[in-house]
Structures are given as structure tokens and as C-alpha cells.
Amino acid sequence: MKKLIGKAPGLGVILVGERKDSRSFVRIKKKACEDVGITSVVVELPEDCTEGEVLEVVSALNHKELIHGILVQLPLPCHLSEQKILNAVNVEKDVDGFHPVNIGNLAMIGREPLFIPCASRGCIEVLHRYGVEITGKKVVVIGRSNITGLPTSLLLQKHHATVSVVHTFTKNPEGITREADVLVSDVGIPNMVRGHWLKPGVVDSKGSHVTGDVCYEEAILKASLITPVPGGVGPVTISMLLYNIVEAAKRTYQWAEKS
């Protein structure tokens, strides 16, 4: 893209605090950007920064011409309003897909978000790459987080799956998961999903935690396809982030019309 128009896609990352996992994720994203020629800028703020200071950084990145995508590394310290900060990101630079306009359009029939959350898009991409049929299938999503569970369930419905969501207050969750043709789990509890939760031949697409939610040794005896952790959906999620950044840059320069 830089060769064609003289400008590289740009990502601005906001990192608050000293969480080792957050810093690790940011390093991975920054390296991935470098590998494909995307410029990335990381703005670091101390753990005790004010909400106003974070919003000032968001505003500055919103107005930077060479920053096409903005990513706020989550989670944020508890004294900061995640909702207020994510809402402040320019929807046209919301490459994480968490802005309420993007989530709202994802939920509505006949509308499309500017950006789809990366982990959710990654799950669908893995299913497509392996030829797993989604239309008309029973899909169970374990977890309803704003980052993965909720948007994944919405995206699956756009692909005409029959979706059930299992959460903390669900009674007899294993009875529901045993009906699933496809199972997506993102609860962050290692080995929570046991082999007897699955029906034979189920497809399991796990979340991006270091240790998977699904007991791999038991699930592999029943599943027709299972994504491992580490690996699996995680690297695809990073690829979807890169895709969103490039799409944001293309919209900025109206490059799609010339390509």
C-alpha cells in the first residue's frame, strides 16, 4: 500500500499500567505490524493516570492523519471507565470493533459494522478455512464478554447459525453444550469444558487464553475439529487486527476504488 500511495497504514496503541500480559500482547501486535509494513505507535500511561489523561491521548490519536486505527489495550485499571474511553475512539478508527456503533450495527439485520471485533472474526475465519458449515447449525458460545462472547454470538447469527449463549447463571450448561454442532468457549477458566460436555463430532473453537477453556485431552476424543491453545484462534485474531487496520487506511485514502 505504501508503494502505491506513499503512505503506510498506521496504528496507535494506548497502554495503561504495568500488567505483564497486556505488555506481552502489545509487543505481539507491534511485531505483527512491523512484519507487514504497518507503522505502530505505543503511548504508555502510568497505572494511576486519570481518565482525562487517557481521553486526551485518544483525542490526539483521533486527529492524527497518519494514525488510521486506534487500539486501547484492555483491561484498563478499575478506576478508569472502559466504556467512556472506548466510546471516545473515532468509530472510523475503531479497529478493535468495540465502539457501540460497530457493535450495534453488528447486532442489526441489514446493517454492517465498519469493523468486526478481531477475535470474533478470527473464529469465523477458522471455521470457514476448515470448511465448517455454519448456516443452520446449532452453535453454543460459552461466555458473554464484550470483547469476545457477545460479538461472536452476534456475528454467528449474521451467518445464520442458531446460537445459544452459556453464562454464569446458566443452569445445566453441559446439557446445552452437548446439543452443539459448534462450540466456542472464551471464559478464561482452564479445562472448564470436559469431554462429557461435548457430543461426538462437535467442532470446538477455543478462545485465546494461554491455557484453553476446554480440556484438550478429553475433547479430542469426541471433537471432529479443535483449535489448540496456545495457537489456534490467537494468531488469526492478530491477522484480523492487521486486516482492520489496512481497511481503515484504505477508507481514509479511498484506495479501494483505485485498486
Helix-strand blueprint:
Elements (H helix, E strand, L loop, with lengths): L1 H4 L4 E7 L3 H17 L2 E7 L5 H12 L6 E4 L9 H7 L11 H8 L10 H12 L8 E5 L6 H10 L3 E5 L6 H5 L4 E4 L17 E4 L9 H4 L5 E2 L6 H21 L6
Parallel strand pairs: 1-2, 1-3, 4-5, 4-6, 6-7, 7-8
Helix pairs in contact: 2-10, 6-7, 6-10
What does this structure look like?
The chain is of the alpha/beta class and 259 residues long. The chain folds into two domains: 88 residues, Leucine Dehydrogenase, chain A, domain 1 (Rossmann fold), CATH 3.40.50; 116 residues, Rossmann fold, CATH 3.40.50.720. Helix content is 39%, strand content 15%. The strands form two sheets. A five-stranded parallel β-sheet has the order 5-4-6-7-8. Helix 7 links the parallel strand 4 and strand 5. Helix 6 crosses helix 7.
CATH topology of the largest domain: Rossmann fold
Distance between the termini: 10 Å
- Number of distinct helices: 10
* CATH class call of the largest domain: Alpha Beta
Main β sheet profile: 5 strands, parallel
Strand order of the largest sheet: 5-4-6-7-8
